[in-house]
Amino acid sequence: MERIEKITRVLTMPPLVTGLTVLLLYEVQALNMMEFIMAEGCLLFFPALAYPFREIFHIGKDRRSGQRTTAMIFSCFSYSYGFIWSLTSNAGMVCKVLFTSYILSVIALLIANKLCHFKASGHACSTTAPMVLLSWQVSPYLVLPSLGLVLAVYYSSIKLKQHTLGQLIAGSAFSILAGLISILLFNN
Question: Rounded to whole angstroms, what are the CA distances from 50 to 66, 104, 153?
Fold first, then answer.
């Protein structure tokens, strides 16, 4: 049974879930081609490079902590670049909301994880973000399948002892708050 939980964790890696969210936003024409390319590059491709980078350079005391650290560093740089690009280019409102919500989420995770030493879940954060963004931009009915994805991540994370329920809820809460703040900032 543990195999299903491990597969769930791999299939819901933050860059993959985010990449699918960006694709769905592009498909409903909430993002133009340039915004799609920038979002996939900054939120999927560059952050996904953290995993092979960690393996090549053996970052961290152990594999899991090295993955978390490397993923956080890669995400900080690429999310920051995308956020700055969205504000300084002619990017649309949805693109600005997308990048702002992700940069706010990573800032919240950094504060919780590095400054407060509370292991808030990046996995829960990244699977909750689509629930906010897609239900706002595509259809409120997307809350249900998104919630199913979030619950699968919660279950697998607890079963594999990666996170406690509190750490998972914190990750989701960061994502929800970041999404709502971003929507309020840019939804004129």
Answer: 10, 20, 20
